[in-house]
Design brief:
This protein has 372 residues and is mainly beta.
C-alpha cells in the first residue's frame, strides 16, 4: 500500500475511533540532516498547547518500516504541558519513557546503533490525555539514506610532503544536499615506538579545533610548527547541529625536506609583485632572486611555470620545483644559482593553473643579490 494512502487511512481511523478528537496540541517532529535519523532526535519533539491552561497527558511515538510493521514505540510517563511552546528536550521526559523494539533487523539496528537502516519509514507522534483522548497527532513519511562519512584527501595516507605548512583537505559527508557542517580536525605528532592509534589518543594535539563549512585548512601559522622527518596522524569528524555525520580514517604524513625544493612562502622585507593575467609593458627588476606573489585558488601543490627569453621567445631550461600552499604564496626563485640568466636581459615568467589560466610577470635579470 502506498505510504500516502497509509497515512490517509491512519487519519481516517483516528476519526472513526475517536469522534471527540480535537487538535488542541500541535506536534512538531524534529528535522534531522538530509536523509538521516538518530534516536536522540526524539528529544527534540516540540508540543504547542493551544489552550490557555495546562494539559496533562502522555506521548506515544511509533516508527513503522516500509512494510508498515511497527518496529519501535516509546510511551512517556504522564506529564503536564504548559500553554504555548513546550520543548521536550529541556524536560528530559523521553529518557524516562518505556521503549519497545520489535524483533526485526530494522529494530535491532535502531536498538544497537541508535540509527535506522536505509529505507522508507513512517513516524507518528500522538499526545493523549490521561483519559485516552487524542489531543494532537503528527505522522510523517521519511526516507533514510545511506550516509557516507567524510574522507581525508590531502596529504594522502603515508605521504611524504615537501612543506611544513600543508593545506589539509577532506570531503564533505555524502548525500547532504544543503550541508551546514561543523568539522573537527585533530592532528598530533607520533612519538618513537607509538602506533598512530595510540599517538592520536594520548598525545597533545598540534591542531584540535572546529571549522564550519570548510573542507581545506591551511596549517595555522600560530600552531606548533611541523618538523621535517617527524610523522603526524590526523582525523576529521563531522556534525550538523549536534548530529554525528561520521568520522574519517586515521591518516599519517611526514614532512620531508628536499634539496631541489623551493619553499614557499618565505617572507622578507622585499616587495613581491603580483602576477597578472595579461603581459604588462613594465619590467620588474630581479636581482639574483625572482620574487612574486601568486594566489593559489585551485589548490595546486606544485607550481606549473615556464620562463621565456623575452627577445628570442626561447624557453629557459630552469626546472626548480616550487611547492605551493592554498591561498596566497610569496615565492622566491633563486635564479642566480642556475647560471642560465644574463645581466640586463629581459624575461617573461608564465604560470598556468589547473584551469589552464595563465599569469605573467615581466622582469629584468641582474646578478647582484639583495640580502636584506
Amino acid at each position: 500500500m502506498p505510504k500516502k494512502i497509509y497515512l490517509l487511512l491512519f487519519c481516517f481511523l483516528l476519526l472513526i475511533t475517536n469522534r471527540s478528537f480535537s487538535q488542541v496540541v500541535t506536534v512538531t517532529l524534529p528535522q534531522a540532516p538530509d536523509g538521516q535519523f538518530f534516536i536522540n532526535d526524539l528529544n527534540n519533539i516540540i508540543l504547542i498547547n493551544t489552550k490557555s491552561s495546562p494539559l496533562s497527558g502522555y506521548l506515544l511515538i511509533t516508527i513503522s518500516d516500509g512494510n508498515q510493521v511497527t518496529i519501535f514505540t516509546l510511551q512517556t510517563p504522564v506529564t503536564q504541558i504548559q500553554p504555548g511552546f513546550n520543548n521536550l528536550a529541556s524536560s528530559k521526559i523521553l529518557l524516562s519513557g518505556t521503549m519497545t523494539y520489535a524483533g526485526t533487523s530494522y529494530a535491532l539496528q535502531l536498538k544497537t546503533t541508535g540509527q535506522l537502516l536505509p529505507g522508507q519509514y513512517v513516524f507518528c507522534c500522538t499526545f493523549y490525555s490521561t483519559s485516552g483522548q487524542i489531543l494532537g497527532v503528527n505522522c510523517q513519511e521519511r526516507e533514510v539514506k545511506t550516509l557516507f562519512p567524510p574522507r581525508l584527501t590531502y596529504p594522502s595516507d603515508g605521504m611524504q610532503i615537501p612543506d611544513l605548512y600543508p593545506a589539509l583537505s577532506w570531503t564533505a559527508p555524502g548525500i547532504l544536499t544543503n550541508p551546514n557542517v561543523t568539522y573537527h580536525l585533530r592532528l598530533v605528532q607520533i612519538q618513537s615506538g607509538q602506533s598512530p592509534e595510540l599517538a592520536y589518543s594520548i598525545n597533545n594535539p598540534l591542531i584540535d579545533g572546529n571549522y564550519i563549512n570548510a573542507n581545506v585548512l591551511q596549517y595555522p601559522v600560530n600552531a606548533q610548527p611541523l618538523v621535517y622527518g617527524q610523522t603526524y596522524v590526523w582525523q576529521v569528524s563531522a556534525t550538523e547541529q549536534g548530529y554525528n555525520l561520521g568520522v574519517t580514517q586515521l591518516w599519517t604524513f611526514t614532512p620531508t625536506e628536499k634539496k631541489d625544493t623551493i619553499k614557499s612562502p618565505v617572507p622578507d622585507s622585499i616587495s613581491y609583485p603580483i602576477v597578472t593575467k595579461q603581459v604588462k609593458g613594465d619590467f620588474y627588476l630581479a636581482k639574483g632572486i625572482l620574487r612574486f606573489a601568486y594566489t593559489n585558488k585551485t589548490n595546486e601543490h606544485v607550481l606549473s611555470y615556464k620562463i621565456y627569453d623575452a627577445k628570442s621567445r626561447d624557453t629557459i631550461k630552469y626546472n626548480a620545483i616550487v611547492h605551493l600552499q592554498y591561498g596566497l604564496n610569496r615565492i622566491r626563485i633563486p635564479l642566480g644559482e642556475s647560471n642560465l640568466f644574463k645581466d640586463g636581459e629581459f624575461y617573461l615568467l608564465d604560470l598556468e593553473d589547473t584551469n589552464r589560466v595563465h599569469y605573467y610577470l615581466s622582469f629584468i635579470y641582474k646578478s647582484q643579490e639583495i640580502t636584506n
